[in-house]
Amino acid sequence: MKIARIQTTPLALAFNEPYHWAGRVDHAAAVVLVEVETDDGLVGIGESVAGFPAEGTVAALQGVAPLFEDQPVFDVERLITGARHLGSFNHTPWHANFVLGGLEMALWDILGKAVGWPIYRLLGGAVRDEVDYFGFVQGDTTEELTEDARDLAEAGYAVIYLKVGRGEDADLRNTAAVREAIGGRRLRLDPNCAWSVPEAIHMIGKLRKFEPEWIEQPTPLSSIAALRQVKEAVRVPIAADQAVFTPADVYEICRQRAADVIVLSPHEAGGLLAFGKAAAIAEAAGVPICLHGQGVSGITDAAQHHLGLRTANLTEGNQIMHQLLVEDLVTAPDLTPVQGKIGLLDRPGLGIELDRDAVHRAAELYRRGSTRLKKVGP
Ligand SMILES: [Mg+2]
Question: Are residues 90 and 209 in the same domain?
């Protein structure tokens, strides 16, 4: 069974409400739908994380397509590794991972469909019957955040996740209110790289009284040294997120003991196989892995769920993102957590059905919005 063609469609996924985090406010996420067709008519679905503008991701996928066409679809490792070593990708390894993550996802979807098995079974089998997800608090004002946190707690989420890094007064006010709203549930705080080392040490000292389970990526993007300095100075567990992308980053974080937990997505790692390698490195160091979410649809959330089912050193309270969208691209199965959990997906491949009308609308939104990014997202 050989790869016949690769189709790419840039999509804008509109958020239900403005998505507030330390970096900015987002109104939509940009992804690229990847559809890989084989010579015997099977179609695999994947999703590459792009960000606005998505044309670079589309061009990169189309650029590597000739390396995949007419090749055996089962040669996932060889094909993806070969593409990753292309000259332009050698200079932009993170970009390569975000691009190739969606393409590799589509290959796994085909493999699962070809043999009639869900992806997690092809990747070693489930080590748990369900994956636990966090309740992601949304809103701008303290009142909005508090109300949403209360709803998520009532819906049964055991872990509640709140963005901070929005200024000291707002952070203390929001965290106090959310802590009160969720009672004794586990609370994670994520400033998304907003703080310098001294700011992080100061803020974590102030936030400690609200008993956060961990503080996620307090310090700048990709600095393992800054993360380690903060971890050694505070008495709250520290999670690495934007300091860790590749399996090599995971090794370095573990070697330097720079974080208590690693937050990682298959797009960051460079695919489902690469995520497994990264998780294995962390497992050997005794460090748990938490699924990370960029702005994505249920396509990626389903792929991540397969990883969650098969990853031994997975935390509870993992991240999903499709629930933040005006409409998801997936019609079935229902990927809404029940009491914070989603069970086994037993259909072949990713096990999802695409909503073609929703895909069409997202493609149209991208076409209309891409020339005026401020209207749809940065
Ligand atoms: Mg994060």
Answer: no
